[in-house]
Design brief:
The protein has about 180 residues and is mostly beta strands. About 0% of the residues lie in helices and about 55% in strands. The strands form 2 sheets. Strands 1, 6, 7, 8, 10, 11 and 12 form a 7-stranded antiparallel beta sheet that branches.
Length: about 180
């Protein structure tokens, strides 16, 4: 018999992808949404955020005209892991190149031990750990922001789904649009 080969989905082709979702992925906290990023100027982003008052992990798409090579002038999925708000307390991880003006299905999960997993179109993209998010209340949000005065962002989040304290709230689906 001939084995069946399933191609790896292209995360930029807007095709719904079966895989990890808020319903079938173990976590204490999760936020899942469809996201579109566009804007003008030198930089802007659209992110999912899991945070406490002093620490956070964010995951989403960022465009930065002046980012260091090879990220310069390109949109990238990236993670910001904020262990604390002090100097050097932030770690940035570029995950994969993204397209502006395209819809992606993304999810950020947080386990009780502070392990955070980032998904693009149902596929695990990267996992990071932030011990400041362990065994505490974590607040979930979406964020859109422009880099400088004169820059603009249009970050659209649709079909936002949440899980808190291990409970999935299937009846609470939201939408948000951030313009600056």
């Amino acid at each position: 018999s001939t084995p069946t080969v399933t191609p790896t989905p292209d995360p930029s082709d807007n095709t719904p992808v079966a895989g990890s979702s808020i319903e079938n992925t173990a976590s204490e906290y999760s936020i899942e949404t469809d996201i579109i990023l566009s804007g003008t100027g030198t930089g802007y982003h659209a992110k999912l955020v899991a945070c406490t008052a002093t620490s956070a992990v964010s995951f989403g798409i960022q465009y930065d005209k002046y980012a260091r090579a090879p990220y310069t002038g390109k949109a990238w999925f990236m993670i910001e892991n904020v262990a604390n708000n002090g100097a050097g307390g932030q770690n940035y991880i570029w995950v994969q190149e993204a397209a502006r003006d395209k819809t992606y299905h993304v999810m950020l999960t947080v386990k009780k031990d502070g392990t955070c997993s980032c998904y693009i179109n149902g596929k695990l993209a990267k996992t990071v750990k932030n011990s400041s998010l362990a065994n505490t209340t974590v607040y979930l949000r979406v964020e859109g922001s422009a880099r400088l005065n004169g820059d603009s962002v249009n970050a659209t989040f649709s079909n936002i789904e949440l899980k808190a304290d291990g409970k999935y709230y299937a009846d609470k689906i939201g939408r948000a649009s951030c313009r600056e």
